[in-house]
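ESCALATION

Customer reports they have been waiting on this structure for their group meeting. Please prioritize. Original submission:
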Amino acid sequence: MRKKVLNFMTLIGTLLGAGCTGVSTENIEAVRPFKINSYLGVWYEQARLPHYFEEGLINPKATYRWGKNGLIEVINEGVDEKSGKKRIATAVAETYKGSDAGELKVSFFRPFYGKYRIIHLDENYTQAIVTAATNNYLWILSRERKLPQKDLQMLVAIAAEYGFDTDSLIYPQK
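Update from on-call: job pushed to the front of the queue and completed.
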């Protein structure tokens, strides 16, 4: 029990501190128009900026599906590179009411929500670039487990144009 409380307090401190670091991404527009039903399904992480909560995680993927009360269930999973064990984190998400933008509110620990802003999305909903409230957070996602190198390079170049530190990207698909 004590470990759970300590982990929770660490998470809260991290979430509160996250707003104090990095540069705001408010000036980066979320994609429009956005259709949540087309976005649902499985997305494979192709690249990300480093974070403690994904440290040592390989082959990560996220599944988005309709859940209870009109909320979106988010199931993040991957493999711990050292132990070989599967790690799973679940969340709920919701769209901003009345908005056609690719922005969600995501909560791993309710009632605390974080921003999830889709800043690039191809017309077929097969490749995406996602950020949060600051430029410390970046994920390049694809419907394919492993993207062709030219597609990945194009997405990294787009992220660089938005000012993200693409030299620090981690490529977790093994």
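Sent to customer with the following note: The chain has one domain: 24-168.
Escalation resolved.
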